Amino acid sequence: MDPTTSGRFRVHDRRPRPTDGDADPSAEFVLVELPETPVDPADPDADEAYDPLYATAEGYEGDLADRIDALDPGTVVDATLAWDDGSARVTELSVVRESRFRFADDVEGMFEAAVEAWQGIRADGEAMGSITTKSTDGEPNGALYLFADGPGTDTFDEVKTGRLPIEPLIERVNDRRADDAPREVFVLRPAAHDFVAVYVVFERDGVLARTVRDTYGLGEGLAAGIDESGGDDAENGGEETENGGEAGNDDDDTDDTNGEGDGEFDITDRL
After folding, report:
1. Which terminal residue of the chain has fewer beta carbons within 10 Å of its beta carbon, N or C?
2. Which of 133, 145, 135 has the alpha carbon at shortest distance from 207?
3. Alpha-carbon separation of residue 118 from 70, 91, 128, 168, 249 (angstroms)
């Protein structure tokens, strides 16, 4: 009988299995097992607590195959893995929370709040930092974490493959908001700057999440949200858009959305 592992896991990524010389490698999941109690990011053993593991993403049958095929990066599942000669296969699976991870490399037009925050972090001699972003009505709508990505490092790949754990960042958001609602997490590496942004957006399908998707071509954006609501946003004078995502730090409650625009509309102005 094959040994098994049961627990709660985050689907971190779905990728071709790294192999030597295989022109058509099979697909695998990068999974991160979630501890029963959150681990403090400052704990020296925090990295080991979130070590990634890998399970095949192909070759399933029936209802289990349908559930496997529907898994997106970011989803939290309860699962049982069976091990055979060092390889893991999912034998039982149920979805717990449909959060999403979205990754974009070499992005153009990184939003201003991230760039300004990074400049401040580097001026302080730090390699990472964070700010809370707010909507135009001053409500917190996301936590933006920035990490150095200098020569000789590949922070983007380390995050995507789970080697640099971001689970403690999500847990920190859950603790502060006193809930574990589905989040949308964007991992962005700008082409013109030496940092990687991990943006934990509080509402998975809120205006801010849809705006970021629109801006960086990461899925259905604002237009899809308006279609789903039957055009209510437009009929209400764009109320939801006005309450969308404008990034700022904790100390900046300024609302300058009433100013007159003198150029072409840029969706990144709302980030």
Report:
1. N
2. 135
3. 36, 44, 8, 21, 12
- What length is written for the chain? 271
Please name the residue that has the structure tokens 């300058």.
256
Domain boundaries, the chain: 4-97, 100-250
Query: How many Å apart are CA 239 and CA 260, to the nearest integer?
Result: 18
Please list the pLDDT of the chain residue by residue as tens digits (271 residues). 679 999 999 999 999 887 656 667 789 999 999 988 777 766 777 767 888 999 999 999 999 999 999 999 999 999 999 998 878 999 999 999 999 999 999 999 999 999 999 999 999 999 999 999 999 899 999 999 999 998 888 999 999 998 888 998 999 999 999 998 999 999 999 999 999 999 999 999 999 999 999 999 998 766 655 555 454 443 333 333 333 334 444 433 333 333 333 333 233 333 4
**Rounded distance between C-alpha atoms, residue 1 and residue 165, angstroms:** 32
| 8 Å CB contact between 225 and 233 | yes
Residue tagged 């192909």 (tokens): 58
pTM, rounded to two decimals: 0.79
